[in-house]
Amino acid sequence: MEIADWDKILQHLHAEAGEKSSLQAIAGFTPKQQSQLQRLLAYVIQVGNPAGPVGWLGVRSHLQTMGFEAGLIDGIGAALKVPQSLDLLMEALDGDVAAIALPKAVSIALLDRKVTPSEDQALSALMAALSQH
Fold it and tell me: Which pTM value belongs to this model?
C-alpha cells in the first residue's frame, strides 16, 4: 500500500478507538498478550531500519511522544535486542493484540513518513489477522 493509504487507515482506526480504551485494553492483557504486542511493535521498528541497529534513545523518545506507556516501551526495548520473525509472530497472534497493535504499528511505520516494503508486509499481515478474528 501507499503511505497515503496507511495514513487513511490510521485516521480511521483512531476515530474508532480512543487512546484511553487502548491503554485500558493493554492494562488488561495477559503477560503473553503483552509480550506479543511488544514483539510485534519491535518487529515493525526493526524492519523500518534495515540499514542497521536501531538507535534506541531516539526510538524511545518517539514512543514516549506518541503516548506509549513506560512498561510497553521497556518491553519493546527488550524485544528489540532479539531479531523477530514475522511468520512466528503471526502464527499464534491473539485478535485483541492485533486490534491494539495495528494503529500503533502504523504510527511507528509512519514516523519517517515512508513505509518500507517490510513494514508494509507487517502491517498488511496485521490487517489480515484482524479480518480473520
Answer: 0.82
Could you give the number of structural domains in the chain? 1
Average pLDDT, integer, range 87-94: 90
Take residue 122 and report the three cell numbers written for it: 507487517
> 3-class DSSP state for residue 50?
coil
User: Residue 35 is placed in which grid cell?
Assistant: 509480550
The domain of 109 spans 3-132
**Residue 101 pLDDT:** 92
Through-space distance between the first and last CA atoms of the chain, rounded to whole angstroms? 22
- H or E element that contains 6: helix 3-16
Q: Write down the pLDDT at residue 2.
A: 66
Residue carrying C-alpha cell 528489540: 80
- Specify burial of residue 129 (Cβ count, 10 A radius: 0-12, 13-18, 19+): buried
